[in-house]
Amino acid sequence: MPFPIVLAAAIDCCNISGTVRTAEGTPVRAHAHFAGRSRISVDSDASGRFVLHIAAGSFRLTITAPGFASTATDIVVHDGERIDVTLEPIGGGRLREISHVTIDGRLSLPRTTVPSREISRADLDAMGYDKVADALGTLPSVTLTRPDGGSPAAPTAIALRGPDPSETRISLDGQPLNDANTGDFDLALFPSALLGAVEVSEGLGPEDHRGADTIGGEVNLISLRPTTIPTWMLRLSSGSFNTSTIEASATGRVARLGYALAGGKAYSDGNVHDYPVMFGGVSERIGSSILTSSALVHLTYDLTPRVTLRFRTLSLSDTRDLSASESAPPFNQLTNADGPDAPNSPFVGSGPLTRAQNLRATLLGATLPLGAGTLAATMTWSSVRNALDGGIGSTPYDFSLNDRLASTTVEWSRLAGSLAFAIGGSVRSESLSSPDQFGYTLSERASTVWLRAATDLAPHVRVAGSAVRSNWSTFGSSTDGRFGIAVEDGAGGSLRFAAGTGFRAPLLSELYTAPFSALPPPDQNCVSANGNAAERAEHATEYELGYARRLGSTTFDATLYRTNLRDPIENFYPLNATCGVDPTVPVAQSFPINVGNVVYQGGTLRIARRFGTEWFASAEYGVNAAYPVSLPDTVSAANPTSGSSLVVGQQFAGIPLQEASLALRYSHDGFHGAANLTVTGANNWLAQGRYAVLDAAIGKRWGKIDLTLAGTNLSSAVTGRFTRIGLGTPYPIPNAPPQSRDALVLQPAATRLIFTIR
């Protein structure tokens, strides 16, 4: 086929061009169909390129190619527009947006019936973010949960649209990473250098893959992938708090073999290093240092143009000094203030405490034609090991454990015109051993089957639906369904609606019931924590309404949602419990129970605008309300994540009602700059008042060399070295004094000088 392909239309406007490639950069021969007031089609050539002459206006663009997931999206055509299409092989590991169309990618309209965001590698590099959690913290729909404190060394969990991180799935190329002890995954030190992108999918949608066991949404980490053209990168950095990193990667293809290799090491003293304090009259030294090493091997082999084998393994090891985040000056009841944090002053907490964490995640996969469709199969294995040395922490993250998860997934899909159809299933097994918590290894099995379909009812009406049947050995079965519709309004906008159901399975740690003789040490009221073998799954019904529109160089996107959560899992605490003669002997137990009903509701407004070719700005404002609507009068319960008491009609502790962000990007003649300002409302997880965090970066490129100066928390918001016991924003309790909370602190402003060779 000649290049470029040019189709003439009867009208003068418009000339557009584009490319069709895989995520690795390989050209794809694809068929593009534009449906609007006029209909026109074009095929890309061997280089994946096409040129087209078409009338201006609104169109639905459909891209299809053998062996790849099709994509359909609404676009507004202007003269000189460039359309870049990225196709994913069926079963390639993406969760919803498995195909990607961009005009200006940052201005593209949503292509799913529920909100889906992508943080690209370019976004991560522009800000100088070397950890995934830094980038996720800029999204208003994301709550960063830090139960052990705000130090970078402390665990960081992600919660979407609600107070519970266990209701948000964390995946690597679609491979679940959530563990069975806390229900989430610690993203505090996950390096961005191993990734090509981060997908954030909010709520429940018919496009979801691999089950319905998520309520808040999903964060999918897309690993670095092979490329057609060989590339390599070496990055060195040095900065505040004796921080240094070295990262390297190489991608390319040798004949049929594609490869992506990456690795790195990072070290930081942190805000507190070798700090002398007194514990019970004994001198100790505490700190917040971090040592991290990571590696990725990602290989693909094309047996034929439609048969591909895939192998990916990722490892992440870190050692953290948690003693600073787990220790603090004691609260003085007489002066109503915390104690001094001068060197050699009295402290309370864990004292010296080191945590070593090791993650291994491996995937084997294959895609091949089968009948009129494509079969994709994957086998995955992961393990998370935590080893604690020293004192005893105060959260579920502070236990030595080994969590293993294995799964097998098979899916057959077919494209026929505008109809996309898929049927598949998976089986998984998980085991959790933690001598600190359990007397034996806990285990569970689960199987899931699903059916998904999507089609165009009319040129501007797209519908999608799915049905999922899940069976778990620990709680039973769940049948869930989801439906969505997107309608183009004829004025450059798209209206979408979705409804669906989902669940959150009980955790193995919640189901384990320890005998009285093996209960953990009791608290100040002589109450010991335990599990509940009768715990049931949470179930949710969600409704989503959104509208997006592009006006020239500006895109608007508004979303409203409501989630009705039934049988939420909360912690029961016995009323009026008091210690007996021996304060080391428990007199009562607390344990998780299913109680009442909960509502999550809110919405987001996102605006993006391009200013010429040099500047780009985006702003987001989000409201996330989460509160119980009914509780039994005879039960005193608390949220298992924050520990705060539940109050009907009152926002959960640790979930700010309002968040906002503003991002700026600049690029011209080798100079580049970026800034993110994130404003967090009151009732946040740090138990601080409203605060704003400013991150920024500025740099210059000379050919293959780039020099960037990046800074985090340049506003020095809510900074400090140690937790302030009892001095956080109090949580109001009806007919009782407000519940005191500890004020957590962030690391002060830090800068890094980053040197990159490509």
Helix-strand layout with pairing:
Blueprint: E1 15-22, E2 31-35, E3 39-43, E4 49-53, E5 57-64, E6 71-77, E7 82-87, E8 99-102, E9 116-120, H1 121-127, H2 132-136, E10 142-145, E11 157-160, E12 168-172, E13 175-176, E14 195-202, E15 217-223, E16 231-239, E17 243-254, E18 257-268, E19 275-279, E20 282-286, E21 290-304, E22 307-321, E23 327-328, E24 331-332, E25 337-338, E26 348-349, E27 353-370, E28 373-390, E29 401-416, E30 419-433, E31 442-458, E32 461-472, E33 476-488, E34 493-504, H3 508-511, E35 527-529, E36 538-551, E37 554-566, E38 569-572, E39 588-594, E40 597-611, E41 615-630, E42 637-638, E43 658-668, E44 671-680, E45 691-702, E46 705-712, E47 731-733, E48 736-739, E49 750-757
Parallel strand pairs: 1-7, 12-15, 35-39
Antiparallel strand pairs: 1-4, 2-3, 2-5, 5-6, 7-8, 9-14, 10-11, 12-13, 14-15, 16-17, 16-49, 17-18, 18-21, 19-20, 21-22, 22-27, 23-26, 24-25, 27-28, 28-29, 29-30, 30-31, 31-32, 32-33, 33-34, 34-36, 36-37, 37-40, 38-39, 38-42, 40-41, 41-43, 43-44, 44-45, 45-46, 46-49, 47-48
